[in-house]
Input
Amino acid sequence: MSEQKTPTRRDFVKGAATGAIGGTLLGMGAYSYSPLAYSRMSKVNREQADFGACRSVKVTSISETSWFNNAHLVGDIHAAGGLLVDQYSINWPPFGNGKGVAQGSYKDGIDSIKKMIPGDLEEAWATQQKLSLHPDNPGGYSCLIEVEDLDGSKHKYLLDAGWSYDWMDQSFKREAIDQMLAAGEIEALILSHEHFDHFWGFPVVMKYNNKIPTYAHDGFYEEGMQYIKDSGYEGDLKVIDKELTQIRPGMMAIKFNVPIITRVYGEVSLAFNIKDKGLVLISGCNHQGILQMTSTAHQKLKYDNDRFYGVYGGLHISPFEDWDPKYDDLVISLGKWDFERVGCNHCTGHLTAKKFIEAGYPVVQGTARFRTSSPDYLGNGDTITF
Output
């Protein structure tokens, strides 16, 4: 494993306190969404790193339903102390200890299941259901990305590992991800960030391939790095410590340093240059904000036709369906980039997807299967090709 300097809680709080906004608004990334933030971005020369091109990218939503009840999730966070509370202390599975809200810890939780993971995930999850808050609420976020090179060869990557061991194992089997992992067909796992719904399902990946090359932001905390080890990982952990990390021709990881709710730090998004089409951006949550993601890509990367072609994933606009008028400005400003294909889901929010459709954006809609609650965006089992 590569070595890294993990941030402390003090680093997180310091980052939150010295950012452009404070407290809750900073944690939710609201300032990043505002026209004011966009107007204040420095006018700099475009660096335009050349990272090659690929022929196409196909994304399959394995699971975008991170949890099934907003009220339970938000209620637990507030009861535990608010948006800046340490996620490992809330007492959610798989780190519950039976002591109640805000009394959890990584150590107590992992001690109850360490001998069971990744070999006996059913028993591990059953154990945690007896110790944790709202154990049936977790789902998870994960998608399969298939990249076609210019020579026609294809390469598979997994973005994120979800949350619930039970739900993610079912979802992996539904999309044959278990078979792909076991056969070594998936070349790497990319962890967008350390949040519970994107990372805590890590042992499910390990169940089928515990040596898969894995990428992680250098903002992962000590608990997150230990969880990777405790899950039985024996592969090459690639810590992303630079703003731009090329994965393969036409595929670039972009690192954003941003404090996020529940004491998480940093997110990695992906950029693809589709030959003769332009740039495609894929995110897990996009806590850095859609304006920062698009502006950074515009400044840093060289891509065909100098145009944005598509976007997929969580865009982090009204993830709890609590629409604020300021988000209307964001919906309008997104039109600046003239995307040809918009595939949104997860923390984009159903209200946001509806707003996109009403604004006439080329939203690729889904089928509302496998407990996805709306066809307005790409749900569980749905695909999009760029």
Residues 87 and 213 are 26 Å apart (CA to CA).
